[in-house]
Request: fold
Amino acid sequence: MDSPGIDIHLDFTLTLINFVISGLIENAEYTGHYYYLLLKKQVKLYEEIFIMEKQQIQKLKSSFDEISHMTEDGVEFWYARELMGQLGYDRWENFEKAVNRAIESCESAQNKVNDHFREVTKMIPIGKGGNRPVKDYMLTRYACYLVAQNGDPRKEQIAFAQSYFAVQTRKQELIEERIAYIERSNARDRLKESEKRLSQNIYERGVDDAGFGRIRSKGDQALFGGNTTKDMKRKFGVSDNRPLADFLPTLTIAAKNLATEMTNYNVEEKDLQGEFSITDEHVQNNRTVRNMLGERGIQPENLPPAEDIKKLERKARAQEKKITENSSGFSGE
Reply:
């Protein structure tokens, strides 16, 4: 796990707000409106790449454990209507859409739907001591995983469930490890998107691919206290043909993304032209983020490297494959 990033990631976001509002907007070159828009966007992104505290993970884990059931044949399952609330849904109509998409995913994977999704009827109480029948589903662990994969990704419970049902064992540390991977992977994807946008922006302003590489390298040098991208790769033992970001902890990836987003905004807002002016902008933004981190006693170049994200992706895919292979299905029709 990226332990250095987990403990300070939320402080990083909150400090960022205070730092920018209290300091940088005093610079007449920047407007309060600019930082309001930028911070609003960044906070939204970081909320999506939230860091779960161990107590919250334990609480969610316990709530999922408590509603599990076992058939006479020893097959573990969950009722959809009980799972619905745990996944943050209030209305059955909305949740059933996720269940139906999960059934389609099961069929696409060429797995027998009836082995993992068993439609049942339950009686629920109504007024004056009466009951009425409602549709429900018995869901195997694999079915629950597919439901989580097809659920609303904005819900915190969905992100947890994707890890909970993917890990065959109920050991909390393995669930935490997978959640940390998802958070880091999401942060990495955000950085890819912002760097792609920067590449497009500068290409439209007369800078070629080689110039983009130089701009990004100068930004890294400002963020890492004078260490170039090559210096950091050498320090982390990263080969020349691999991106440095694939080995950075979540916190550093988020820092790089913030600086890049700031550059994108100013390049577009001020219509900056040419390699020199865009480089100057990107260096200033990386330096700003570094200074903020420094106020918290954090030096990005001194944070330990994280495990190769490609290796973690392969591990996650292997886990997902095992879900299908090892998940017991319902017997009979």
Residues 201 and 234 are 30 Å apart (CA to CA).
